[in-house]
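FORM 7B: Structural annotation worksheet

SECTION A. Query
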Amino acid sequence: MLQTNGTMTQGELAEAIYGDNLHTPNIYSSLMSLVNSGVVTRAGAHPAVYSLSGVPIPVVSNKRNGRRKNYRDVPGDVINNDSIDEASRLVEETDNYGPENELITRCLKKFPDNKDPDIVAMKIGLIDITNSTHLSQHKSLISMDELCHIIVSIPDIDARIAAGDPEVVNEIARSNGRINLFSFASKYCCYHNRNLYGMDDYSILDNVLKNYLPRYFSDITRGQIQRWQNRFDYQKYNDYITRKLDELGITTPNRKRKFDHFIWYKNR
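SECTION B. Predicted structure
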């Protein structure tokens, strides 16, 4: 993970590897072993930042809010119908996202049901690869076969996703009780709901949203979003997005999906 991302905090490593922040003690002991052996460098505090030895660590600034300098400034961003329509159009026109989104749509329409574990496995793999949910990093905690059977075993899953039932996200996210798949679950439900059924009931959660929503809105923190994730309370997260879009007067069709595109495109 450090080789891929350059620098990370202990919490970021725990979330990337385990899908939650409940394993930070395990991460810390491993990190300090690597620091003591000279493989990893540690700098700063609250939080400390780690990198492979020889990789420069950027200065962590603003101790009052703990934000790093490399977060983008967002005060100039205007969020309205026109701006999120434009951002969504630009995302759809990218060389990777546009064709991949069409591929997902075609596959979901050919294999709409979540009843056959083999079919579900292919859809999990497609959404995982195109959305970089990194499920393969969690093979020690949950196997593909296990996740497929968990999804297939959810009662009335297809009808419930079509109707936008938020609890389906939580049921997938809880998985086998050993890992929190909240982000992947939000994407799995969102793609079926939007690309297959033409609805717009689900808001995706990923690290870009988690990091940047608090920079756009003063009434939310990263910690609050993390608590919803830890408690498997997807409805509160989804309702929050709905409420903010209402407050902003966003009425464009598929506004949740376009809002996700806007945040991702501006801050990717």
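SECTION C. Observations
Residues 117-131 form the longest helix (15 residues). Residues 83 and 262 are 8 Å apart (CA to CA).

SECTION D. Sign-off
Analyst initials: ____
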